[in-house]
Design brief:
- By secondary structure, the chain is mainly α.
- It has one domain.
- It contains five helices and two strands.
- The protein has a two-stranded antiparallel ribbon with strand order 1-2.
- Helix 2 crosses helix 5.
- About 4% of the residues have low confidence.
C-alpha cells in the first residue's frame, strides 16, 4: 500500500489493532483543514457501500491535468489524498487497492472531513 495509508490509519491498524480509530487525522491543505477519511469497509462511515467502479472512477476523474484545477469552493473540500498521482494508475491496479481495502476489518468512525466547508 502507498504512503496514503498512514493518513487514514494513524493508529497503525494495518499492522496491528490499536486504540485510535481509522481516519480523522487533520491536515492543513490549500489553506483549509481537512481530515483523512475512514477507508475501512464499514458501510455506514467508511467506503463499504462503494462499488469497485465508484472507487476506481474517483481517481480516474483526475486523469487529465485540467481536471486537477480546483475552484475556491472545491479547495475548501480538497483532500491530502494524492488523487492525481493515483489517477495515472491502471484500472487494474486501482481495483487491486480496492480489493485490499475490502479485506480490512470494518470500523465505524464518522469523520467530519471538511470542517471549513460551507
Amino acid at each position: 500500500m502507498g504512503p496514503g495509508l498512514h493518513g487514514h490509519d494513524p493508529g497503525g491498524r494495518s499492522r496491528q489493532l490499536r486504540a485510535r480509530p481509522p481516519g480523522g487525522l487533520e491536515f492543513l491543505e490549500t489553506g483549509y483543514r481537512v481530515r483523512s477519511a475512514n477507508i475501512t469497509p464499514d458501510a455506514d462511515t467508511g467506503i463499504g457501500s462503494w462499488t469497485e467502479q465508484q472507487f476506481v472512477d474517483k481517481f480516474k476523474a483526475f486523469e487529465t491535468p485540467s481536471d486537477a484545477v480546483l475552484s475556491e469552493n472545491e479547495r475548501r473540500q480538497n483532500t491530502v489524498m494524492p488523487t492525481t498521482a493515483y489517477a495515472g494508475m491502471t484500472r487494474e491496479d486501482l481495483a487491486a487497492i480496492y480489493a485490499y481495502l475490502r479485506t480490512l476489518t470494518p470500523v465505524g468512525n464518522r469523520v467530519t472531513r471538511f470542517p471549513d466547508a460551507r
